[in-house]
Design goal:
Structural class: mainly alpha
Distance between the termini: 69 Å
Mean pLDDT: 92
Strand content: 5-15%
Largest sheet: 5 strands, mixed
Oligomer: single chain
Number of helices: 26
Strand order of the largest sheet: 4-3-7-9-8
Length: about 625
C-alpha cells in the first residue's frame, strides 16, 4: 500500500499525530473529573510543570513579581523564552488549554520534520511516514527492549524527544528543524535571502531555548558553508555580505526579548539556575574530562564504526543520496568538537553542561539510524517487489501504532492509576474545589502557605496574589529573602531548630549522588557540588562527603551539597531572627514531607477544611463561616 499523492500524506501524518495525542490524553480525561489546570500539572512529563510558573510570569509581562506585599523592585526571572513563544501566543487565546493543544501541534511538527528529511533522502512517502512514526515512538521501543534504563539508551529515552514542557517538547524541535533546513539547502543555491532569514530565526529560537544545540547549529552552518565553497569562501562572503547581515539581523530581532530580559535578570536567580563562571582552572579540568571521555571504549567503538560506515557509504557511489547522508556524519563529528570549542571560548556555563554529551549520543543515533535504513532499503528494493515492500511498510506502521497504544496504556496504569496516585490526585482536586467553590475565598486576593510544588504551580496559574514561601525558580527573590521566608515560615508553623536542621541537612539519595529535595526546591543549583564546582569553591564538608564530591563527574550538576559552614550559618540565623509573620489565608501541608508534617496550626485562627492521606488544608477562620475543627 502506498500513499499516492502529497494530499494523502498530509492526512496520514495528521491522523498519526492525532492518534498519539488522543492516546496520550484519553486516560486523564476518562479517569479524572478535574479542571484542565490540574490535568496539565499531573500529566506533565517528568518535572516539566515547574516551568509553568516562569511561563506565567512571561504571560503576565510581570517578570519581577515577588508574591510578597512587602517586596518590590526586584530584577527579573528568566527562562527558555524561545521555546515559549508559541505557547504565549496560544495562551492569550486559549488560556490553560493551550498546553494541551500545542502538544498536538508539536507532535505534528515532529512527524512532518522527519517525514521531510526522509523524503529528501529518497525514501518513499510510506517509508518516510514509517520512519517519522518510529522516531516518535523511540522511547516506547526502548521500553519494549528493556533498554530505557541502560547507559546511553537512557539518554535517547528521555532526551531524543518527549512531550516534557518546554524541553524537549519545543526546544528539540528547533534543532531537528535546523537539520531539515540544512538538507533543503543542498537542493538550492546557498545564497538566497529566504535561507538566511530562516536560519537566523531558527538559530535565534535555539539560542533562547537550548544553548547547547545553538552552538552545534552554528558550527554545522559554518562547516556546510566552507564545505560548499572551499577556497571561494572569502569571495562569497564579500559578494553576499548583505545576506550575512540579514542573518544576524533576523537572529537579533527574534532574540531581542531574551537579551533584554537577561540584562535585567537577577544574578542570584541565575545562580540558582546553575550559572557558573569558567576560569582557567575549570576550563582545564573540563577539557581533561572531555578528553578522557573520548578515550573510553564505547566512544572509540562508535567512532570507528562511524568511520567504516562513512567509507562504505561513500564507496558505494550508487547508494542513493550518499552525499546527503554525509550531513549526519558532519553533525556527529561536529557534536564531538562542540563542547571543546564552548569550553575554550565561553567565560560562563550553565549547570546542564552534560547536554553536550547528550547531543553527541543523539547525533550518533541519527547517523546510524538513517544510514542503516538507507542501506537496508538500497538492497531490499533490488530483491523485493515494490508492492510487497509497501505492504510490509504499512504493516510496520500499524505495529508501531499498536505498540504505542499498548505501552502507553501499560505505563499509565502502572504509574498514574495506582491506589496512592489516584488518592493523591483526588485529594488535590478536593482541595482545589474547596478553594474555588468557597464564596469567602478569592484566590486572586489570597496569601498561600505551602511547600508543595504542585500546589504552588496551580496557585500561580490561577493568579494567586501572595505566597508566603516559594520555589527558588518561581520568583526573583534574593537568596537572603528565601532564607528569611523559610525561617519565618518554620517559626510560624511552630517547628523547632531540630526540625529546621532535618529540613536542610545533606542527604544521600542514591549510590551516585547527594541531594536534599528541600534544598533543591528553594535554592536549586546554588549548592551544586561536583569535582568542578562547589558553593563558593568550598571544601568545608565532612570527609566522606568531600571524597565523594571530588570523585564525582564535573558534569554531575544535579548533585547538591550544602557546606558545613553554610548549615551552621543558617542554624545561627534561625536562632537570631525575629519573625514578623502575618497570617496566611490558606495553608496546605503535604504529609509526605515528614518535617513539615510536624507543623502545629493554631485552630483558633484556622479551619481544618480537609485532612486526607496526602494533604491537610486549612483556611483562615471567618466569623461568618461555620467550621468544626
Amino acid at each position: 500500500m502506498e500513499v499516492k499523492n502529497n494530499n494523502n500524506f498530509r492526512y496520514w501524518i495528521f491522523f498519526s499525530a492525532l492518534f498519539f495525542f488522543i492516546i496520550r490524553w484519553y486516560h486523564p480525561i476518562s479517569n479524572f473529573d478535574e479542571k484542565i489546570d490540574i490535568s496539565i500539572i499531573f500529566e506533565s512529563v517528568s518535572d516539566g510543570f515547574y516551568y509553568f510558573a516562569p511561563f506565567k510570569a512571561f504571560a503576565n509581562f510581570d517578570l519581577n513579581y515577588s508574591y510578597d506585599p512587602n517586596i518590590e523592585n526586584l530584577n527579573n526571572v528568566t527562562g527558555p523564552i524561545g521555546a515559549l513563544y508559541l505557547h504565549l501566543i496560544f495562551y492569550s487565546i486559549f488560556g490553560t488549554w493551550s498546553f494541551v493543544i500545542l502538544e498536538l501541534v508539536y507532535i505534528l511538527i515532529f512527524l512532518i520534520i522527519f517525514y521531510k528529511i526522509s523524503r529528501l533522502l529518497s525514501f518513499s512517502r510510506l517509508e518516510s511516514l514509517l520512519i517519522s512514526i518510529v522516531l516518535f515512538n523511540l522511547p516506547i521501543f526502548l521500553e519494549f527492549l528493556s533498554l530505557s534504563g541502560e547507559n546511553y539508551f537512557n539518554i535517547l529515552y528521555g532526551e531524543f524527544y518527549s512531550l516534557r514542557f518546554p524541553r524537549p517538547l519545543a526546544s528539540t524541535v528547533f534543532f531537528y528543524l535546523f537539520i531539515l533546513c540544512i538538507f533543503r539547502l543542498l537542493n538550492k543555491d546557498f545564497f538566497i535571502k529566504k535561507n538566511f532569514v530562516l536560519f537566523g530565526v531558527v538559530s535565534g529560537l535555539s539560542f533562547q531555548s537550548f544553548f547547547h544545540t545553538f552552538v552545534l547549529e552554528q558550527l554545522i552552518l559554518i562547516f556546510i558553508f566552507l564545505y560548499t565553497y572551499k577556497f571561494k569562501t572569502l569571495n562569497e562572503v564579500k559578494n553576499n555580505f548583505r545576506l550575512i547581515i540579514l542573518f544576524f539581523a533576523s537572529f537579533l530581532i527574534i532574540s531581542l526579548p531574551f537579551f533584554i530580559n537577561m540584562f535585567y535578570a537577577d544574578a542570584e536567580f541565575l545562580e540558582r539556575m546553575g550559572l557558573t563562571h569558567l576560569d582557567y582552572e575549570r576550563k582545564l579540568l573540563l577539557l581533561s574530562y572531555l578528553f578522557r571521555k573520548l578515550a573510553k571504549f564505547e566512544f572509540l567503538l562508535i567512532t570507528c564504526l562511524s568511520i567504516l560506515l562513512f567509507i562504505f557509504i561513500n564507496y558505494k557511489k550508487n547508494l542513493i543520496n550518499y552525499k546527503k547522508l554525509n550531513i549526519f556524519f558532519i553533525i556527529f563529528y561536529l557534536s564531538i568538537i562542540t563542547p571543546f570549542i564552548f569550553v575554550l571560548f565561553s567565560p560562563i556555563f550553565f549547570s546542564h553542561f552534560y547536554q553536550f554529551n547528550n547531543l553527541i549520543i543523539i547525533s550518533a543515533f541519527l547517523l546510524f539510524f538513517f544510514s542503516t535504513c538507507s542501506i537496508i532499503r538500497f538492497y531490499l528494493i533490488k530483491v523485493v517487489h515494490a508492492k510487497i515492500l509497501n505492504n510490509v511498510t504499512f504493516l510496520l506502521i500499524l505495529i508501531s501504532l499498536f505498540c504505542y497504544l499498548y505501552q502507553t496504556n501499560k505505563n499509565y496504569n502502572t504509574l498514574k492509576l495506582t491506589a496512592d496516585s489516584i488518592t493523591q490526585r483526588n485529594e488535590f482536586n478536593k482541595i482545589s474545589n474547596l478553594i474555588n467553590n468557597n464564596e469567602f475565598i478569592d484566590i486572586k486576593k489570597s496569601n498561600l502557605l505551602t511547600f508543595d510544588n504542585k500546589f504552588l504551580v496551580w496557585a500561580i496559574l490561577n493568579d494567586i496574589k501572595y505566597l508566603k514561601i516559594s520555589n527558588g525558580v518561581y520568583v526573583p527573590k534574593k537568596n537572603n529573602m528565601i532564607e528569611n521566608d523559610l525561617i519565618d515560615t518554620f517559626k510560624y508553623l511552630n517547628l523547632s531548630k531540630n526540625d529546621f536542621f532535618d529540613f536542610i541537612k545533606n542527604k544521600k539519595i542514591s549510590s551516585w549522588r547527594y541531594r536534599n529535595e528541600n534544598i533543591k526546591n528553594l535554592f536549586w543549583m546554588r549548592y551544586q557540588a561536583n569535582s568542578l564546582v562547589t558553593h563558593k569553591n568550598s571544601k568545608n564538608f565532612d570527609k566522606e562527603i568531600l571524597d565523594f564530591i571530588n570523585k564525582s563527574s564535573p558534569l554531575l550538576s544535579q548533585q547538591l551539597v550544602v557546606p558545613n559552614n553554610e548549615i551552621k550559618r543558617l542554624l545561627l540565623k534561625f536562632d537570631d531572627r525575629n519573625s514578623d509573620y502575618n497570617d496566611p489565608d490558606l495553608i496546605i501541608i503535604n504529609k509526605k514531607n515528614n518535617t513539615i508534617n510536624n507543623s502545629i496550626i493554631n485552630l483558633n485562627k484556622f479551619c481544618k477544611a480537609f485532612d486526607g492521606k496526602y494533604y491537610v488544608f486549612y483556611h483562615k477562620l471567618l466569623n461568618n463561616l461555620n467550621c468544626k475543627n
